[in-house]
Design brief:
CATH architecture of the largest domain: 3-Layer(aba) Sandwich
Number of helices: 11
Distance between the termini: 25 Å
CATH class of the largest domain: Alpha Beta
Radius of gyration: 22 Å
Structural class: alpha/beta
């Protein structure tokens, strides 16, 4: 196969500390920090390969890439790509499964620990001088709790969900999971039962027609008032307005979130009302983004391109 023209559409979303010249091993590379819909047609016109992370590739955009042979999704999820269009037009699509498992699990645990331990309140108490002024050697308000003995409910038992389950067990948690196909080594149940019984619920499921809005007002009502909900899946897996209301009404003990239905979320988003509350930990979609994770991501994409050039099928999602 002759040398490919590779276009990186949104390098800024993968990180300024990443060296994209490594793609030159596979072809001629053009790297753009961001790409708008108006800029896309000119940039994609001669592209053989598009590397992208957040850009939405649908029929309206893909018609401007007549030479396109391969789309490399710089992520595991690929709901931003019109797979049916790609299949119909002979465009291969690859993703990178499993590259971010450790990092997403790490953030999930960090959020749970921050909320259950009330770390922001305690660090602020020391930082603002209150601890020094108190003359007391310790402070035990607000009340915090151990993970041991708590029930950790996991929605989506893929690589990330499994990793979180393993970590939760190490901390002495009872683990239960909501999974379409039950497994023998973890207690599996339906979503309503999981919501009723869990002290911590973490979401690790893909976004699709079956999971869109799966945590809504009904499920939130079923949860314990002191339950902690963590969403590191996709923003639209939950009813965002209902979650914000549950926090404001003290019907949910804590909320950790790294993903949003619109990213970044706008100024009128329901979460603006709860951002900064001590029982809320929201991060700007960082769960996948440790430096080591992103280096792994780039390496896997290069392997995907090399396999495609050799006529091999590797991490193809258009063939499923």
């Amino acid at each position: 196969m002759e040398k490919l023209k590779i276009i990186v559409l949104d390098s800024a979303s993968i990180g300024a500390d990443i060296d994209f010249s490594v793609f030159e091993a596979c072809g001629d590379v053009e790297v753009y920090e961001t790409t708008t819909p108006e800029q896309f047609p000119a940039r994609a016109a001669d592209a053989d390969v598009i590397v992208q992370n957040k850009y939405k590739l649908n029929k309206e955009s893909l018609i401007h890439a007549p030479k396109l042979k391969l789309v490399c999704e710089a992520a595991t999820g690929f709901d931003n790509i019109d797979i049916e269009y790609c299949r119909a037009h002979g465009i291969a699509v690859t993703n990178v499964p499993g590259y971010s498992t450790d990092c997403v699990a790490q953030l999930t645990l960090a959020m749970a620990l921050q909320i259950i331990m009330h770390l922001p309140e305690y660090t602020e108490y020391v930082a603002d001088g209150s601890y020094t002024a108190s003359g007391i050697a310790n402070r035990l308000v607000p009340q915090f709790h151990e993970l041991k003995g708590k029930t950790w409910g996991i929605v989506g038992l893929g690589n990330i969900g499994r990793k979180v389950a393993d970590i939760a067990k190490v901390f002495g948690c009872r683990v239960m999971a909501c999974k379409r196909t039950p497994v023998s080594d973890i207690e599996c149940t339906d979503i309503d039962t999981l919501c009723r019984n869990s002290d911590i619920i973490s979401l690790h499921t893909p976004l699709n027609d079956g999971t869109h809005g799966m945590i809504g007002e009904k499920q939130l009502t079923l949860m314990k008032n002191n339950a902690i909900l963590i969403n590191v899946a996709r923003g639209a897996v939950v009813d965002e307005a209902a979650v914000a209301k549950a926090i404001l009404d003290c019907k949910l003990g804590g909320f950790g979130c790294d993903v949003y239905s619109v990213e970044p979320f706008p100024s009128d988003h329901p979460y603006k009302k709860i951002a900064g509350l001590p029982n809320v930990c929201m991060t700007p979609h960082i769960a996948w983004g440790a430096y080591e994770t992103r280096i792994r991501l780039i390496g896997e994409m290069i392997e995907n391109i090399a396999a495609f050039m050799d006529g091999k099928i590797r991490n193809r999602v258009d063939t499923k």
